[in-house]
Amino acid sequence: MAKVVEMSPIIEEEVTLEIDGIEIVTFANLCPFELIVGEVYQIELDLTILDEFIIKKVDWEEYKIHQEGNGLSYTLQGKLDIDNRALDAGGITFEIDSEFLMDYGYLHEQYVQIRVNRITVDFL
Questions:
Q1: pTM (2 decimals)?
Q2: How far apart (Å, rounded) are the C-alpha atoms in residues 124 and 42?
Q3: Of 117, 18, 111, 14, nearest to 68 (Cα)?
Q4: How far are the Cα atoms of 20, 65, 107 from residue 98, in angstroms, in the given order?
Q5: pLDDT confidence of 91, banded at 50, 70, 90?
Q6: How far is CA 52 from CA 27, 35, 68, 72, in A?
Q7: What gap in Å lies between CA 63 and CA 91, rounded to an integer?
Q8: Domain spans of the chain?
Q9: How many angstroms from the chain centroid is the CA of residue 83?
């Protein structure tokens, strides 16, 4: 569940959400109805990686969701679960396509950083 905090007046698909107290700027991929600021919706998040998949192990056990500038790109940091194809970024768990993780089994249960081009949201 996520609360709609803001909708961009410039980019129709840009929606700011609050999930468990964390605000993220997302790209609305599927929205079969009109959104209302302040309302809570059932959603599904997806990570969009358009360029090279960049993942690196970090030496500190810290969770972060860091927006890069004012755009839609993010650096996500948290604990990687290869078996469930997920990154726990502290409050929000992101599913990662298995095709990106095939060569990174050695990072299972490790703290990592992943760069994504955008976080896509589908409103259900």
A1: 0.91
A2: 6
A3: 117
A4: 26, 21, 14
A5: confident
A6: 20, 33, 17, 16
A7: 9
A8: 2-123
A9: 19
> Among candidates 114, 112, 7, which has minimal Cα distance to 53?
114
Question: What's the token pair of residue 26?
Answer: 């997302």
What pLDDT digit, counting tens, does each position of 14-73 carry? 999 999 999 999 999 989 999 999 999 999 999 999 988 999 999 999 999 999 998 899
Beta bridge partners of 48: 118
CA distance 74 to 39: 24
**Is-contact 116 49, C-beta < 8 A?**
yes
Among 15, 108, 100, 115, CA closest to 65: 115
21: which residues sit within 8 A by CB, 6+ positions away? 91
